Please model this.
Amino acid sequence: MSGSPSRLGIQARPSAPGRSKLTPAPVDELYDLICVGFGPASLAIAIALHDALSSENADPAFTKSPTHQPKVAFLERQKGFAWHAGMLLPGAKMQISFIKDLATLRNPKSDFTFLNYLHRRNRLVQFTNLGTFLPLRIEYEDYMRWCAGWFEDVVNYGEEVISVHPERALSSSGKVNAFTVRSRNVISGNVSSRRARHIVIAVGGKPKLPSSFPIDHPKIIHSSQYSEALPRTLGERDSPYRIAVIGAGQSAAEIFNDLHSRYPNAKTSLIIKDSALRPSDDSPFVNEIFDPERVDEIYNQAPEARKASILSDRVTNYGVVRLELLEHIYADLYTQRLRNSDESQWQNRILTNRSIDKCESLPQENSIRLHMTCVKEFRRPGGRLNMEARDFDAVFVATGYVRNAHEEMLKPIRHLMPKSNSLDCAWRVSRNYRVSLDELKVEESAGIWLQGCNESTHGLSDTLLSILATRGGEMVESIFGNISR
Model:
């Protein structure tokens, strides 16, 4: 990177990212590892592998001989590194300490700590003066982008992985000893194949919409696309738009709050099922839920106990909002109450206890009609349910993600599942994130790993940033052994 501002407007110090210890290999070679996706999870693996190869105690078999240097490639659908680009809102802060970055908890001396990033960007003293552990989200994204810049030689952007196929050995065993990854270039459409002994699938989540909502409607935007879709959906700042935001979590609250400042004449409704917005709990004991050591405890529990434990933990992260933002929103609503006691006349409202039954497109009006039921137990006179319909010019949906992209990719190897899995047809993952495959059909030296889709077995932190530094090191050791002896 040069000294010019990044796409986020962050001024970079005139120094480029360093060069990683990972070296590129020709496409037709057999890779030791291919990572599908290059978001934070895969980036943490890349950093951990770089650090292992850089260690003073690194195994010479990996560091001295080019023939033994790990051959690694990363395939990423996006055209460049990006992290939650749709939610990089003005003033939005991280919800975890910068100490839980991509390296510090595993190796505080790593080049990839957030503090080293600040030092390299010539902002360390000024950041210290802020007196906070929570960076702005745009700064943390720039930190990860800076880290990703070290690995440009081994990342193939614009490659969408289609499927993973088994490759059988020519030896007498006939077992699968590698896998072929097929990907499509998002620009040219060309399909290419790469072979590897080990595959890590870390593609993140797919936006989830309520079942009653149409897919790909131009007026219905998932929170992941908020910033990009806003200019084309609501292009006139002073128009009296009618806007709905659906969801009760941090993203929904941030969007609801952001719309106030962007569209001063708009009427905005935050629609939630609950009776009120709830605060997140980031107290010290609760934060231990996200400690790396907690993964062992969760994984080793009996299935029913684990399910109950994860359900109990979910209230710390799902459908909750940071207290600072809650208080800010409440103050805004109170200001409206001062001016007008009739809540129905407010520009910005929270509609509680609402369940959306139907989403109807109105082409002639170029709007969306939401049919809702009040989920409280009271009814209208005559026993009828309390129902209503409201029209909106845009609907922003912050209802989370589904994390099942690996299912489609792994269809060609379903026959390699152990027989014990055949009853429920579910992929089972060991503590080290390795997918269970039939030992009679697959060599021990070949394997598939899953990242970010194992909440039901590894706990709430599986989809979050909190444990990535530690988990990246675990993944490197699991795949390559103890490089740093």
